[in-house]
Write a structure and sequence with these properties.
alpha+beta, 6-stranded mixed sheet, 6 strands, globular
Amino acid sequence: MNTNLFYTFATELKLKTMKPTEQTLQQIERLIKKIAEKFPAKEEASLLTDIHLRVTQDSGELVAFDDDDREITRCIVEQWIDNVDDDFYEEITGILRRCIERQKSVVDQLSVLKPYAFVLEDDDREPMAELYVVDGDTVIIDPDLMEGLDDDLNAFLDNLLKS
């Protein structure tokens, strides 16, 4: 099975209620490109171990920080403003992973010593999810991807067969 197709299918299963708009995807991808501009591939590798993506649920603000809590860049994701869903961080995790995966060629070439990770944090600086890990030639997109996949696939097939 094509791994990109599999990843996309599994990611879409996780995005049950919040469908990102094209504008949301573009805003996040622009943020990723701005991060890449701060760590261009041709420069000497930085000693960063993580890039922290902090999301404030009520303002829709998405801010990237380095390990020393210095801001790298920020944007406002309009679709997320005033979102009061209890599972907000679970839902945006899949969206952020998909955007990072779409920018894989850029993200994998950051001038950051490997291993490094993109980590989602809430507005209280609590880690919510490890979004993307690069460790040499090994890239881990979603460590929990296989969890519950059988149930999701069975439900999908049942619904498909009922149609």
